Amino acid sequence: MIATHPNPVCRAVPSFMLHVAVDDVGGSDTFEQLWTKRVGDDHFELCCIPFFAYDMALGDVVRAEAATGYVIQSVVQRSGNGVVRVAVKRPEDVNTVHPRLHDLLGRLEYLCEWFAPGYVAISLEPARSHEELFTALAELGESVEIERVLI
Questions:
Q1: How far apart are CA 88 and CA 93, in angstroms?
Q2: What tens digit of pLDDT does each residue of 43-67 get?
Q3: What pTM does this model have?
């Protein structure tokens, strides 16, 4: 399985697709495809918000080589951005909670990417307070699972 980003928040032109292994999602042959822009021979800047990959965020510079099939080997420079993921727990709640999440993120002007209705990755800028976001997410109660991946 390969998880893709149809609408990356910072689609670079030209773009370069990398893969990152996400073993904890679906096994050893599961990858996430990440949009990047080349910033050196084997260095690339992430142009999307990872849905499943840990320890990386929008704007991070990563290392990947042709010899590895352009699978990310490491993060070489942090952007300072964080990532929080929000998932609606029960399928029957998606039609109610998704619009609330969508409106909240738009109102607060967060960069985000939707993997599917009810599952969103949100970029957290380092110089910004995120108290209003986390307060509003907490108000959604038990209908969502909130995962702070990198902050």
A1: 7
A2: 999 999 999 998 999 999 999 999 9
A3: 0.90
